[in-house]
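Following up on my earlier thread - several people asked me to post the actual chain instead of describing it. Fair enough. Here it is, all 391 residues.
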Amino acid sequence: MRKDRLTRSLQVLASLLLATLIISGCGDTPPVKEDQFRVIGYFSGPTNMVDSFEVEKLTHLIFCFGHLKGNRLDIGSAGDSATIEKMVGLKKRNPELKVMLSLGGWTGCEPCSDVFNSVEGRNEFAASLKELTDYFHTDGFDLDWEYPVIPGPPGHPYREEDSDNVTLLMKAIREACGDDFDISIAAGGFTTFIDKSLDWTNVVKYTNFINLMTYDLIHGYSRTSGHHTPLYSTPQQTESTDHAVQMLITKGVPKHQIVIGAVTYGRFFQMEVDSLVDLYQPCHFIYGFSYKHMQDSLAPERGFNILWDSIAHAPYALNQDRNILATYEDERSMALKTKYAIDQGLGGIMFWQLCDDKPKGGLLEVINGVKGKEAAKAAKAEGAKGAEEAK
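Reply from S.P.:
Thanks for posting it. Predicted structure:
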């Protein structure tokens, strides 16, 4: 009798499991696969620099940028085509490398709200992306629309429908390019974007990952100084990498689809105070500088004092003689961000952009070093657990 009950129970359980699997497999697209820890580099530079970097340490390389020509994605010059072809050629050095096309940038999406507001516009764009993908043998697409729903560059159109239209665009791209095609969105890493710009519940169904732009949080239009890419919030500055990540998690974005953002550049701000300059004071943006030139840009002989914010986990530099503050990424902050992404179980880390890094021994090397170290620790812990269970 007990055996019969057990048999019936197992049969019921098997039926329920089968039904669950069938239901979970239904829908417009199959579920996005949980991937490896991604290390993603954006590239916006001359063709002859493409192969200067250690692409063996990248999982994804993103070409910046294509443009809209009518409703179609357009690669506008022979030089851009040569750059993409050279990027794809780097797979000889790293067969696992994925090369992605992209659209947008700060001023590169002015027509986006209008074009993607119609079925025809979305479908024509998706078809043109498929054509370019087949022509160049690329592996994915990143949308960097700044911004849907909320104001971006002065004069750029935006509308409430943008949020739904981004989801519909991602759906059209998935249908045109297939399940093995990587789709990502470069998303603003600040509160207003996360709250208003995208329908997170639905858009993640069609995207592999979200490149969270947790930088330029203090930017060219800012009039109060702060950290432009901090890991954590401070009492004076809410916007940070962790703040953005926790918001996305609250909105239901799976952790493995969140890729945090880092930078290989810094920003100089002219302080508008008569007293000693510091964070969180009136200012205006002057210009940026590359990490590869940072040692010279922030040299003590130029009057800079290098400091560390132990709350934000971010470096900054002050020049009291010239009333200047610098905010940037360095080796320590990049290592902490990478470890944070791994510890939180996130999908990876990306950075803007390769051309501002050193070809060797730069911030990409820091990311790779932390990734390798944490992988070794995890393997050792797993081995110890297995040995303990075998006793």
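The first strand starts at residue 38 and ends at 43. That should answer part of your original question.
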